[in-house]
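Troubleshooting: if your tokenizer reports a length mismatch, compare your output against this known-good record of 569 residues.
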Amino acid sequence: MSMELVLLVGFIALVIGLSVGFFLKGKKVPSAVEPSPDLEEKRKEANEIILKAKQEAQEILKKAQEEAREIKLVAERDAEKIVRLAQEEADRLRSTIKEETEKIRKDVEEYISEKKQELHKLEQALHQKESNIERRVQALERREEELYRREKEIREMEKEIDKAQRDIQTRLKELEEKEKEIEALKHREMLELQRIASMTLEEARSELFKKVEEESKIEAIRIMKRIEEEARDRAEFEAKKVITTAVQRLASEIAINYTTTTVELPSNEFKGRIIGREGRNIRTFELLTGVDLIIDDTPDIVTISSFDPMRRELAKEALERLIQDGRIHPARIEEVVLEVKKEMDDKIRKMGEETCMELGLYDINPGLYYYIGKLYYRTSYSQNVLLHSKEVAYIAGMMAEELGLDAKIARRAGLLHDVGKAVSHELGGSHTDIGIELCKRYGEPDPVLNAIKAHHEEEPVRYPEVALVCAADALSAARPGARRESLETYLKRLEKLEEIVKSFSGVQNAYAVQAGREVRVIVNPEEISDEEAYMLSKNIARKIEEEMQFPGQIKVVVIRETRHVEYAK
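Known-good structure output:
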């Protein structure tokens, strides 16, 4: 600031000097030859002006210095204030940095804790895999023992076959000796008859042939009866042995399907989000999927109830996606349900393909994969149809291997013998007729077509492999715990309830829920008006009363919904 004052003072002095110079220049200075009488006065005036200018300059300089001191004081105060504010800001930043550091430290500790938990889970999974490997090794050891035992049985069977062959050869020799004895007896009798009866040779020969033929027939019948009885006993023993061995080699799953599925929740707060404001979320979910969503006091669990396994699987997949996504509202529920419905076909087709690969049937037409996979969502007297078909295929294939038949054809026919059940509930009619139509469409061989018809005795068995499939089907169905009549009756009652409702025109879809105590009917709003919807509920209730036997009462709910959609662009 002092440098600016010095420059200011210098500038003022320069201005004053230039003014005085111009003033003196304006006066005409007399020459030395002609001295001016008032030159001295002018000089005095100039000196006074200069002196006065110097005094004014000193005063200005003094004022400037005072102002400079004031400005300096103000600047120092401002500087102290700025320094104080800077220190406060530094303290605040220091505390903020300290808080951020503490937060980062906590986040790092939480991250390390999570990683430790993940590592612990991985260690548990590794231990689980090790235990699984140990179980598989034990299973392989048991399999090896079983193969050794089977080899021993085969050797014993070979010995028995050799013994049977020796017995047959011995019997053949005995028959040859008996034939020789018969020839000798015939010759002696012929001579005796000629001597006693005085018959001609032709007459004696004819009489002798008749007698010998009768005796030979009686002896042959006795031998044949004895061989047939022995063969029957032996065949029954061998059949029991083959069936027992095949069933022992098969370790099948317990194929029982229930009517409920549970979904685990991350926390109990999701129950409120699933229900939604005034229950709109749960109503939308049940309407779109056709299931009952049961939310009770059980912690972190929601139960899905439906008699149809396909609907339960679809609802389970959709609910798990909604929980994972976190956005649960009617529009999002509808979007997710539609996505899952589109993906279900691919999942079913992949399941059918994996089943064929598991059974070693690599040449089955890929068009059948979808129908084979769909059997997983069908039951027969509470027995899962896909698991039942696999069980039949395995048993028939192993019995065919025991008997030296075509095991691949037996497995193929066993897997496809109930394939018509995949769509019989949708198209109506016998599952055998629908199965024949499907298999013909995709070029399946004749033994498969024969197995589809023959396992219900609709046509005779034409191939030995088909007979094994029929036996395996009976074994799988008769296994303890495989089938339960009461559950199947209940499921058929619910299916019939839906069929009755869908028989009315204008019905878009129908869902039997609440264990058959309620049926939800979704109608097409373009075909059915509100008044017609009211009458439709009455007509449906009346037809259910006429055609069904049911305990208690059935609630008929007709839903008519109109939507108008537009997009803002």
